[in-house]
Design goal:
The chain is an alpha/beta fold and 231 residues long. It has nine helices and seven strands, in the order αβαβαββαβαββαααα. A seven-stranded mixed sheet has the order 3-2-1-4-5-7-6, with helices on both faces. This is SAM-dependent methyltransferase.
Length: 231
């Protein structure tokens, strides 16, 4: 993978960036995504944000080697802290982290989301955390994708601000409203695996112990939701 040929996962992520966007790629690693977005004309300005020194240096080197320092600002900082008001960022990309971590990044500096028109989020796990965050903070899902790459399954969520209150059912929050309607082969594979795993876990929990009641109720709900959707 490089700035000219992204992974399948990042290709789908960047496909949700509108033409001439001003993007912030949080956790940019080698800055391949912002470099690709600029070179393909998808973005006119980008921030490559990194909190770790090694990837920050790699991103800096990559942007300099392509002579893109005028269009891409490589910044070291934690999460959305790399974004300044003058950047006029309208699209934020956060890919390749856990859903809980992405959620914590969004919650840490909510003011940095002012003026942002689109979030493109690719959690490695726990996508439901982001759908729940969206409900609470009035962001609506406008698209979702699911794909398999290198024997791993990834979900991509695209969110835009909503003036109206956003509400999802338990099933939509867990499985994704767009994904559960499409019911692709990859979607079935993911949730059949999860279902088998949760049934196995449930069978190992002592149902006679009062302290396990909450955990069992949560598992039973998840199992029921998945069985109904896959049926």
């Amino acid at each position: 993978m490089n700035e000219q040929q992204l992974s399948k996962r990042l290709e789908i992520v960047v496909s949700y960036v509108s033409n001439k966007a001003r993007i912030a790629d949080i956790g940019s690693d080698h800055a391949y995504l912002p470099c690709y977005a600029i070179q393909q004309g998808l973005a006119e300005f980008a921030i490559a944000g990194e909190v770790v020194e090694g990837p920050f240096q790699s991103a800096t080197k990559q942007v300099r080697s392509l002579a893109l320092t005028e269009q891409i600002a490589v910044r070291k900082g934690d999460g959305l802290a790399v974004i300044e008001p003058a950047d006029a960022i309208d699209t934020i990309v956060i890919a390749g982290m856990g859903g809980a971590l992405i959620r914590s990044i969004l919650e840490a500096e909510p003011a940095k989301l002012d003026g942002v028109k689109r979030l493109v989020l690719q959690p490695n796990i726990a996508a439901h955390q982001l759908r729940e965050w969206a409900e609470i903070n009035q962001w609506k899902l406008v698209a979702e994708s699911i794909l398999r790459e290198d024997n791993k399954i990834y979900e991509i969520l695209v969110l835009e601000p909503s003036e109206a209150k956003v509400a999802y059912s338990d099933a939509e929050r867990l499985l994704g409203p767009f994904l559960m309607r499409e019911k692709s082969e990859v979607f079935h594979a993911k949730w059949e695996h999860e279902l088998a795993n949760w049934i196995e876990i449930r069978g190992k929990i002592d149902a006679n112990s009062a302290k396990n009641a909450e955990k069992l109720a949560e598992l039973d709900l998840k199992i029921k939701l998945i069985e109904e959707v896959l049926r």
